[in-house]
Amino acid sequence: MGAQYGQLNPMGSVRDLEEVRLARVGDAGAANNASYAAQKDDVLDRHSSLDAFASMLDGARPGTNVDAHKVLHYDRQQAVLDARSLAIATANGDVDAGLAEFNARSYSARREAFEDLWDAGRRFVYGAPNPGTLGARKYGDYCLIIDPATLTDADTGVFPRDTAQTYTDSDANVFADLAYREVGSWQARADVALVHRGDEAVFLSDRERAELVCGADTYMEVITVGPLGLDQVIILRVDADNWEEHSDLWWDWKEGRLSDPSDRAKAKAYDALMGWADLEIETKDGDE
Amino acid sequence: MNDNGEPFVLLAMTPAGESALIADHDRVSLVRFSSRGRQRQDASADDAETAVRRYGWIRVDRAFSTWGDLDRFRTAAAEEAMRGFPDPTVRDYNRRDVEVVLKQVARSGPDRRVAAIGLLTDLLVRCPAVRRDDDLSAMIGERLEQLRSTPITADASAMSPEQERHELARLHLDYGIGAA
Question: Do A225 and A217 touch, CB atoms closer than 8 A?
Answer without folding.
Answer: no
